[in-house]
Please model this.
Amino acid sequence: MMKDGEDNSGTSGWRRIVAKYQKPSLGRGLGQVLNTLLPYAGLWFVMYWSLSVSWWITAPAAILAGGFLVRVFIIFHDCGHGSFFKSRLANDILGTITGVLTFTPYFHWRWDHALHHATSGDLDRRGTGDVWTLTVQEYLESSRWKRFAYRLARNPFVLFVLAPLFLFLVKHRFAYTKASGRERLSVYGTNIALLGMALGLCWLFGWKAYLLLQLIVLAVAGSAGIWLFYVQHQFEGVYWERNEKWDYAAAALQGSSFYKLPWILQWFSGNIGFHHIHHLSARIPNYHLEKCHKSEPLFQSVKPVTLLSSFKSFTFRLWDEQRRKLVGYSALRAIRKERKAAASASLAGNVP
Model:
């Protein structure tokens, strides 16, 4: 395990490095609020106006609104880490408001997401705020039903289309059994606010138009968000380790990707592609991540995942502990052949 101020990856002193970028900027924060929430609201006005003109205007506006909703979620995300503003109260207020816009209960999500940061890359503590990932051995030892469920859950259409809608429309409407009183109230309060928002917009747009538009916006934002999260932790060369060998800094710098995106996608995704730095220090606001990456030699050796190379992540399905890499289902055939050959050799050796 890592000692205070050092780690097993040769990145001694990283706390001192990231501390320089942890101070929130009121101006940068307010600027992001204005250039995100105002266009998002404006696009809903465009959708309302265009309903009487043409769906050829309405549909693209809804898709673009989905892109802005991703950026709204990044602001919400930073508030949850207490990094967007210096004031904790300001973070909580803005986080609660953006939580309603993103259909996500702020305090409940903040508690759950903190567990993700504490366990990312730890094979023995999987299952909280991450994509379901089995090792090769676990998959081979699973029942036929569990293997079917796993393949279904990792199917791209399910993972990037159906799962996001289920997450934001259904799962976030209920509190976990281990959640505290404040987290539960966050879920109930968000649900009430969402009901009020939906009723108001149904009255304004008509319920059919509102539901369709909201579904498009959420589908675009949810699919993009899940894809970003997936690539940030499911990429070639990713770090996974058993708990006794797990290292916080290594899990951040090697277990979270540097997703190098074109500038427009980087803007819409709120610099979250610098995920290696974010996991090293969640206290760095998103608007300081790029500067931190470019200014510090510590991060120059981190191999980027480009937009083109990220599509290889579609092929990753299981973690191979023996080869210490993510593999696809095709690797199972070779593993089964190896085991069958080894068993045959062992049996032959025991024959007198």
Remarks:
- The chain has one domain: 14-350.
